[in-house]
Specification:
NAD; Alpha-Beta Plaits; alpha/beta; EC 1.1.1.95; binds nicotinamide-adenine-dinucleotide; disordered N terminus; binds 3-phosphoglyceric acid; D-isomer_2_OHA_DH_cat_dom; 2-oxoglutarate reductase activity; EC 1.1.1.399; Rossmann fold
Length: 471
């Protein structure tokens, strides 16, 4: 088992390095870390017994809290490491979250758990956050970085699932399938063709042509749709899709408008009364991005007027913490209005909720957490500089890996190397991101009893945010 220790105010700054078989490391010239197979989670083995002087804790001492029903694949990888894993099916109210987060070194969440500065400031032992989803808007990334807490996510493992849901919704809206099905469930046969359409030849307007938007573009063209898209970045069109210069251009031309932008200050209420009024009469709106992107009261007005012939919402400004919670309470006054509208598909944030997506996300994020906890590798981190050293000497005795997360100020490397200077620095890599820098150094000829001195000296530097020594 690997181990870690706690030197400063409960912050685990060192844990025993573990060996890793070289087949798990990329041999590509770019030296990126290849995503390991699922067995990676059990592939890391302890190297030697723990030196008493460091009061290290074993991997069993690493406490991980997983919220929001993280997939079994991820739980298995983490428990396979020997970490203590507590997994809950829902998110937690802030007060309970604060109580729980005080104790853990790692937290895994999905889109609902808000890790604000207020919550994170209580997380004295936290070294890393895993977002088992695409979005990271629920985490205060800047504050986490200032504290040296790494954040990882799964940038595209559920993109296909979302794109397929949107395709289903386009046809469902065009044919009013939701309403017909509801009527049949109530015993009413209502065979109509008025205002029911084929999607072939219609124009799909995609707002945000990233992972999901671009995948959707390909699927929609296969159905015979014309695709236009709007994005703040100029992006290569797939197939015969066409980028339009403004959102208004898209709204005026599209029969279906679908939103795939992140939650940013600029995308809040991006679709409100003015934008809905620009949309073609009888057009449709789909939002499977974030609940903040659509002004819901404005949508209700537009649908009641008939200008918008149908809509699909998968995401909402306030979402319940878990299944069974009452939807209307969270939407306040809008819940009842939404539920009363025809040709409005309401789904409980299930865009990425498929077996395939959740299983892949579980593996991807859990592997990233293991690599970070055990090896300090930040590849894929959304808030720290991405640093990886591929060490061929990890299994040799008297080697240690130093991780020094620090403020990006002049003179740090000189001071760090003064501290490491008595040892043989085999490799060293440092990268910065804004005000923050991440240094990784593999040193040899270091005795275990010297490791505490190194850690203490690094901690004593004024630039220090967090020091970890892996050995
Ligand atoms: N419903 C779900 O279950 C579900 C699942 C996955 C992702 N999502 C959400 O879907 C959204 C898109 O995900 P993605 O993986 O495609 O993201 P992405 O980062 O790959 O793509 C987002 C695109 O939006 C563009 N963009 C940013 N700001 C914009 C603006 N103001 N106007 C126009 N374009 C803008 C970006 O340039 C980028 O091309 C995110 O909000 C994500 O959280 C929801
Ligand atoms: O950000 C995401 O990946 C989606 O919104 C899905 O979130 P979820 O994992 O909470 O369903």
């Amino acid at each position: 088992m690997s181990s870690a220790r706690d030197i400063n105010a409960g912050v685990p700054i060192a844990h025993r390095r573990v060996s890793i078989s070289t087949q798990n490391l990329s041999t590509s010239p770019t030296a990126t870390f290849q995503s390991p197979p699922a067995s990676f989670g059990t592939g890391l083995q302890p190297r030697r017994s723990v030196p008493k002087v460091l009061k290290p804790f074993n991997t069993q001492d690493i406490k991980i809290l997983l919220l929001e029903n993280v997939n079994q694949t991820g739980r298995d990888i983490l428990t396979g490491q020997g970490y203590q894993v507590e997994a809950l099916k829902t998110s937690l109210p802030e007060d309970q979250l604060i109580e729980k987060i005080r104790d853990v070194h790692v937290i895994g969440i999905r889109s609902k758990t808000k890790l604000s500065e207020r919550v994170l400031s209580e997380a004295k032992n936290l070294i890393v956050i895993g977002c088992f989803c695409i979005g990271t808007n629920q985490v205060d990334l800047n504050y986490a970085a200032r504290r040296g807490i790494a954040v990882f996510n799964s940038p595209f493992a559920n993109s296909r699932s979302v794109a397929e849901l949107v395709i289903a919704e386009i046809i469902t809206l065009a044919r009013q399938l939701g309403d017909r099905s509801l009527e049949m469930h109530r015993g009413t046969w209502n065979k109509v063709s008025a205002k029911c359409w084929e999607v072939r030849g219609k124009t799909l307007g995609i707002v945000g042509y990233g992972h999901i938007g671009s995948q959707l573009s390909v699927l929609a063209e296969a159905l015979g749709m014309n695709v236009i898209y709007y994005d703040v970045v100029t992006l290569m069109a797939l197939g015969t899709a066409r980028q339009v210069p403004t959102l208004d251009n898209l709204l005026e031309e599209a029969d279906f408008v679908t939103l795939h932008v992140p939650d940013l200050p600029e995308t809040r209420n991006m679709i409100s009364t003015a934008q809905l009024n620009r949309m073609k009469e009888g057009s449709y709106l789909i939002n499977a991005s974030r609940g903040t992107v659509v002004d819901i009261p404005a949508l209700i007005v537009a649908m009641r007027s008939g200008n918008i012939a149908g809509a699909a919402l998968d995401v909402y400004p306030n979402e319940p913490a878990g299944n069974g919670d009452y939807f209307t309470n969270n939407l306040n006054q809008w819940g009842e209005d939404l539920r009363s509208l025809s040709n409005l598909i309401l789904t409980p944030h299930i865009g990425g909720s498929t077996e395939e997506a959740q299983s892949a996300i579980g593996v991807e994020v859990a592997d990233a957490l293991v690599r970070y906890i055990n090896l300090g590798i930040t590849l894929g981190s959304v808030n720290l500089p991405e640093v990886q050293l591929r060490s061929l000497t990890m299994d040799e005795p008297d080697h240690a890996r130093i991780i020094y997360i620090h403020r990006n100020v002049p003179g740090v490397l000189r001071k760090v190397n003064e501290i490491l200077g008595d040892h043989n620095v085999d490799k060293q890599l440092s990268d910065s991101r804004g005000d923050l820098a991440y240094l990784m150094a593999d040193i040899s000829n270091v005795r275990y009893e010297q490791i505490k001195d190194i850690a203490d000296s690094l901690d004593g530097l004024s630039s220090c945010i967090m020091t970890r020594v892996l050995y």
